[in-house]
Amino acid sequence: MHFKRQAIFVINEETTFNFNKTFSLAACASYRIQNQYADEEPFRPAVPATKNEERYYLRFYYREQIGKTKLKFSFRPEFRRFSSSGHHPWNPVDEEVRLRLKGQASIPLGNSSNELILSNEILAASDREIFREAEHWSGYTFTEDRLATSYRYVFSNVAADVGV
Q: What single DSSP character describes residue 138?
């Protein structure tokens, strides 16, 4: 199999501290290299062809169980830095502070360990924008809402999720 247009390469490290069964904290770092392409065929590499991203974030978890349904809430403040392949600032936005708030419910299906998972994540961000050698930070703005549902099938010790 030949891959002509690779999309993204990610290195991620997350270290989780569990305070008890309800609260935990994860300290995380991520580095991403994302190839950029033109929007129209033949989808040639864009200029610049590579976008690098560094992410540093914490994730605070709160877990609760109501009957057999498991609820998980997380708050994730993150700092992101963007650059081109030569590690030059990415125009017009080269840094961003983003806040993510997520709620998730895992509902067991029958007597098996399979689950229906429903989640919603709301994101807001403030960007450092570069215009003609000047810079300024934007105010916090709602950026997206990620609503998802998936089915988790558990094989002995491995879980597979399929969803939208």
A: P
| DSSP at 2 | -
- For 126-145, how does the pLDDT look when each residue is reduced to its tens digit (9 = 90+)? 988 766 566 777 888 999 99
60 to each of 18, 23, 24, 99, how far by Cα in Å? Answer: 10, 8, 6, 12
The C-alpha atoms of residue 88 and residue 111 are separated, in whole angstroms, by 55
Do you know the residue count of the chain?
164
Long-range CB contacts for residues 50-53, cutoff 8 Å, separation at least 24: 50/84, 50/85, 51/82, 51/83, 51/84, 51/90, 52/82, 52/83, 52/84, 52/85, 52/87, 53/80, 53/81, 53/82
